[in-house]
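Here is this case:
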Amino acid sequence: MRRRLSTRRAHRGFLLVGLLVLLVTGVLIFAVTVFGPEAAEARRKQQTEAALAQAREALLGYATTFRDSIDPSTVYGYLPLPDLGYSATPANNRNNNVGCQHEGCDAGQSVVPAGSVFANYTVIGRFPWYLMGTEPIRDGYGECLWYAVSGSHKRTQPVSPMNWDTLGQIDVVVANGSANLASTLTSVHDRPVAVIFSAGPPLPGQDRAPAANQVVDQCGGNYEVANYLDPGTAGALAGVTNYFGGSTNNASGYTRDETRTSPIGPDDNTKSVATQGETYRRADNTLWSGACPIGSNCALVANDRGLRLTTEALFGAIRKSSGFRTDINSMLDRMVGCLRDSFAAGVPFVPQAIAGYASPADKSAGRIPDNGCYGDAVAPLHYFANWQDMFFVAQPTAGTFNVTVDGLAQVCSGVLIFAGQRGAGQSRADDAEQNTVGNYLENDNMGDGATTTTDDNLTSFVNPGLTFAGPGQLEIASPTQPLQQDIVRCIPTTGSVEATSPQNLVDAYGNLRSPLATYDPGTRTLTLGSEGATIYNGISANSLYGCAWTPEVSTRGNGFRAYFAFQFMGIDGLGNNGFVFAAVDGERNGTNVCGAAGSHLGYSGNNGVTPPLTFPKIGIEFDRQRNSGFSESADITVSNPGRNDPTGGEYDYHSAIVYWGHEQANVTDSVTRPQDDDNVHGFPTTGSQGSSPRPAPQNPGASSPGLAFKDYRAKSDFDGDSQSDSWLYHVRVEVTPTRNINASTAELSNTTFITHAWIERDTPTSANIIAAMQNTTRAMSQLYPSAAPTLSDTATVYDVAGSACGTGCPANQTCGTDNVCYSPALRSVRLGFTGSQRTQDQRVLISNFFASWLQ
């Protein structure tokens, strides 16, 4: 029994040993699998790919904010220089930008040697991680990344034109078993604008030890590109190098693309780089990617792995930027305004000729011509020269075009088409291709087959045809707006401003007086006021109004930035009247609305002839007469209503933000005519609306930042001549809405409007701030941070009540708990100017009016 027990124990021991052996074997197999050389290499490659992708996203972030945060005077599309080397010795420091001169910054505008940042010089160096706002980005081997930027797209010495057709100057080549590397690109449009490199482990001939006069504390090593990027041995990659031999640190070289015939230069000077990772050279000098053929004698000659950034990817990201879309759509707005005014003035435009293209007999067509009205010097700054190739115009030889924009058919004196990004089969690489209209314009532009029969834009442009169609706004590329889709605008038959004012003003003496609002499309100048048109000359007060409005409304709903200049002109003694710049609800106000005379300034009140301005609305008042206290007047001829204008010597002239006062009669404020108090300062007074859940906004009063004294006196009041003009003033207005939706109680949904206005007198010392005010595509807080607005106010505007819900509300309206449909206030906006006279005449010249609608 004792022997059997021992045997049983022995068997049990062998079993444990066997299990232990199996366990150890499994652990070893797992360790080899997970921690072995192949697995470790796979993890390094994954880390490298993740690092390259992170750096690429950082570059795209830089590109999409370039115009907003880096250089507002330059268009989108440019990329930073690499980190070319920081040195404590100034003469050796190539990162010499003000504010960023250390490791991880990009190189400066002027580096050593100067030629390394000349136009069309591609530059290779370390990835500028600090500039990108990251820590050093390392590959799977612990090396910091490197970066090549095409000479066509680097931010220094920028190349023009810069747009989504600008070619990169880098070619990507691969080993394919032959003695030479072959390009991977199927089109010149595929050339990268940048390549991010992982250098991998050093190869023979590469020295990554620290170098004298170079500070590389974070990444370590040195700035000699050839010590990191391959090949380590000259000539090992059939003449291809991922660096520029012979330049400082082998970092830069001339790479201008010469596919265009002018200006003349060397042919095809692009920089070829190898980015595929391990490349082997066999004894017969053939090159192999990834591995050598079995049984062959090969040497590893390159291990750089790269991630390219193409123009398509670059502008795919840029197109998502609201700033870029604001720029393009603002340029379209400005072009349409200029061209329609030219037509209205009897001066049709002459299209720019396209080589090899002849206009059909029924139209004059080509690219948009040069014109200072929409050139580089006006907002959006510097866009015209860079994007002119994308704009096509046409005007009929006789009659009009039928242009369908966003589904609405319009009768037009011309058409403006903005060509989208390249579609299938389109190439715009050289002069011949850029003179081929079919490489830009589309047929079946709406992409709905035969549903829309007027959208064969290409056919109508190159053959007889009078119909065009497309969306009116550039949007983010999507299934509803493919990247190649044409953006189409009607050039209307009327001018860009429509005036509303009695046309036949005859005074008591038989004299015909000019209307109180006239627009000259030739000079693009609006005049408010009329000499001699007063009640003292026998003209009815009901006729002393004048308003002017944009014919179209904007439904973008994201706010706007507007600019204009004005001057009170001296006639018969500089009149004590004024005017209002107004943004009114486009769904409730047409181009025929205008208010009453006298202190109403055409903004408030009812003149009895035209429809009055209907709230919601926002105005900027420019007032030259104090009407103190509050009073009402059923007859403007008898008395001028008091507007609560502030008292005090300096407040005879002031500007203020105004809304619309009371929406109904109010006992507290003694308002019996609620339509007449829209420009009464301080109304509705605090508490006057009781516990109303939907109070109207309060017009700012004298003690608020929404009202300010401005000296609109005649310049020569200082020398006693009352006949002269006032100073010239520049005005910038920004209105920014924020929606506040009440999901359970629709009638309590509202929009918060922040309104800022800058009013600046024209002086030699105000040139810089005026230039910023004119750049309507960017916020003043970005362009001129130190310039505080003259007027500021924040107002909560509740949604507008419509009809009863019934069987449902119209689109974009919501039914409230009170069974009434509500729509967002100022969802549709019309801009304009209002003015009036009473006992004194005036003449106000308003010029250079333009607004950018935010995307």
About this structure: The chain has ten helices and 37 strands.
